[in-house]
Design goal:
The protein is of the alpha/beta class and 272 residues long. It is 57% helix and 14% strand.
């Protein structure tokens, strides 16, 4: 499991350990990763391996996979949880913002998939692949173009692998949380807008008020894997929003246009 040092990854690792899973955990945050492992072990769970590295580093992921397979064999479940977020409009986003979103949120999971899933296929024992996307991987949320580039991307990867891996008994699960009460809610980058502007704070606080606990997302993930659900939602609003967008295209477009106009007024006010 990637992203195990905090948030959804940490909560899912703890919940899986409580159900008897033997865990192999990674994160870029070495201290946070060790705290997660220590908490799990103190509660009687089993952590086989922890290693801190950057999942955008393909050679590091490949070396880690080789070590894991040599010592522990093929995994039963692979979970891509690690991620980060940057919001901004196209005239404010720089190349580095786009690159960071794609590298961490799309290529990182792909590095994990290409190193861990083919051995699962060859082993012929089945298993599961879990990829954490976002509501921004289902819906056209304002200012999310760079973030959605990656989150829609991992959704596309998951949809294809859902069918490609089915003959091998490997289920694929796409997690689509909305706001989750993790450090990312407070630390996300907002490019081209003053985060201290009271109007911006009102919008972001409204977003965070709807944030669910990471433990709730963790339980939804485990339940979704057990029940073989492809899209795993952490809250009803995202499930309803995605259903509504597919069934009522014109009202959906109207609402998104209005949201975008409202967000754009903040940019106009700032530039004037």
């Amino acid at each position: 499991m990637t992203g195990a040092a905090s948030g959804i990854g940490r909560a899912t690792a703890r919940a899986a350990a409580a159900r008897g899973a033997l865990l192999i955990l990674t994160d870029i945050d070495a201290d946070g990763l060790e705290r997660t492992a220590a908490d799990i072990r103190a509660a009687g769970g089993t952590v086989l391996v922890t290693r801190a590295f950057d999942i955008t580093d393909h050679p590091a992921v490949t070396a880690f996979a080789a070590d894991v397979h040599a010592e522990h064999g093929v995994l039963d479940i692979v979970m891509n949880v690690a991620g980060t977020s940057t919001w901004g409009t196209v005239e404010n986003l720089e190349h580095r913002h786009w690159r960071r979103m794609v590298d961490i949120n799309l290529m990182g999971p792909i590095h994990v998939i290409e190193n861990f899933v083919p051995p699962m296929v060859r082993a012929g024992r089945g298993g599961a692949l879990v990829n954490v996307s976002s509501a921004a991987g289902l819906l056209a949320l304002p200012w999310h173009a760079a973030y959605s580039a990656a989150k829609f991307g991992i959704r596309g990867v998951s949809e294809v692998l859902r069918f490609d891996l089915r003959p091998h008994g490997i289920s694929v699960h796409l997690v689509a949380p909305g706001a989750v009460n993790t450090p990312l809610v407070q630390s996300f980058d907002l490019v081209g807008v003053d985060k201290d502007d009271p109007r911006v704070q009102r919008i972001t606080s409204r977003f965070t008020r709807h944030a669910v606990a990471p433990e709730r997302v963790a339980q939804a993930i485990l339940r979704g894997v057990e029940r073989n659900r492809f899209i795993i939602y952490s809250s009803f609003d995202i499930r309803f929003g995605y259903w509504w967008a597919r069934k009522f295209a014109y009202p959906y477009e109207f609402v998104i246009r209005r949201m975008s106009e409202r967000f754009s007024r903040l940019l106009v006010s700032k530039d004037s």
